[in-house]
Amino acid sequence: MTLSFAVVVFSVVAQSLTTRLLLGRLGSSSGTPSHDVNQYDQSDMRPGTNEEYTAIRESIAERAAFSSAYVTMNALAAVIASYGLLQDSSAVVIGAMIVALLLDPLMGIALALVDANNSLLRKALLTEIGGVAIVFAISIIIGRIHQDIPIGRAIISRTAPNIMDLVIALAGGAAGAYTAISPRVSTSLVGVAIATALVPPLCTSGLLFARGETHLALGAFLLFFANLVAIQISSSFVFWLHGYHEITGVMRLNRRVLLLHHGPSVALLIALVVILGLNFKQSMAARRFEIDVRNVLTREIASHPGSFLADLRIDQKEGKTLVTAVVRTPFSFGPGEVASMQRKLPANALPVELHIRSVITKEASPTGWLHELPSALPQVEAGPPGD
User: Which of 174-178, 192-196, 350-354 has the highest mean pLDDT?
Assistant: First the structure.
């Protein structure tokens, strides 16, 4: 996970520097400085779409600005998401997704990269960074205040991203971009906000950093970053398909330079596909191993009358896979029986060691005790006093 995070950080820096360099080259290669949309001749626009395109561009640029409303809504979203995660409440976390405004400047970044609009890119990027910093800082503060609250499933589920999370973010980003340029589907904005989840994994990372759980925190931050990149790339693709690169006259520029301009984003996406694909493969292998182990132990334990598997935990410790089974049983399992079961467990990358924790239970019916060992001594009823 540390290597994955290092790749992410390096890719962010590389993308930022490359984008800045290429924007400058765009201005020099075309004989004009880096531009805004208003610098282009309106005759380049498609007939009958001038007003619509202009209104949409202005709307996206306006929502990408750093404002008091942007700060307030993201701060409230951070509070809602953090406490929803601590309460393990999916409904509260969904509410935070709707309140957050981190998606707005991301749409500005996506459009700016398609248009090679240096001004919009700088503004939207700073707004996005500011919003992320606000959400992350608030979640750390809340995490420090409530370190005594146990970590629930809502937090743990966001610490191991895989390729499916990236696919969801790609689809959500495309939907967000289509909503931004299609007023007729603006009513689906709530669904888009839920699909393009940015605040919950970011708050998860802050809460875990506050507790010193660095490994888990990096996993949650990787999920946030993967969502961020996927949304930007799919949004830029949608803007490109709808002709925004033609509106600003970018098609007249050097196509090779434009390809290099979008190269960092594509390279970053490929890196995330590899990292999250490996995570998915590892998680599926671990899940299959757990299912196979559970099936073997359930079958073996069922051969002992009155015994059943109550709980199963699999950990990686000291260079081996430790399988701990909690068994409710009328008698203890001895080392010989544990060794016999261990030999029947499936192989794993590391040596497998089985521990069985016997929880002694007694079961009775109206006619007597059940599941007694054959060697058990018969109970002697007490005689009348004085015998």
Answer: 350-354
Q: Is the dihedral of CA 137, 142, 144, 147 positive or negative?
A: negative
All residues at 6 or more sequence positions from 315 whose CB lies less than 8 Å from its CB, including other chains: 321, 322, 324
In the chain, the percentage of residues whose pLDDT exceeds 70 is 74
260 to 20, 21, 91, 242, 294: CA distances (angstroms)? 12, 10, 42, 21, 51
User: How many CA atoms within 13 Å lie on the side-chain side of 367?
Assistant: 2
Amino acid of residue 226: A
pTM of the model: 0.71
- For 318-349, what is each residue's pLDDT tens digit? 889 999 999 999 888 899 999 999 999 998 88
User: Which domains, from first to last, does the chain contain?
Assistant: 2-285 (no CATH), 303-370 (3.30.300)
Q: Which residues make Cβ contacts (< 8 Å) with residue 129, sequence separation at least 6?
A: none
Q: What is the pLDDT of residues 111-121, one digit of tens each?
A: 888 877 788 88
Confidence at 72, pLDDT banded by 50, 70, 90? very high
For the chain, state the CA radius of gyration: 29
Tokens of 333: 């399992």
Cα 327 from Cα 314, distance rounded (Å): 15
255-264: long-range contacts, CB 8 A cutoff, minimum separation 24: 257/22, 257/25, 257/26, 257/29, 258/26, 258/116, 260/18, 260/22, 261/19, 261/22, 261/23, 261/26, 261/113, 261/116, 262/113, 262/236, 263/18, 264/11, 264/14, 264/15, 264/18, 264/19
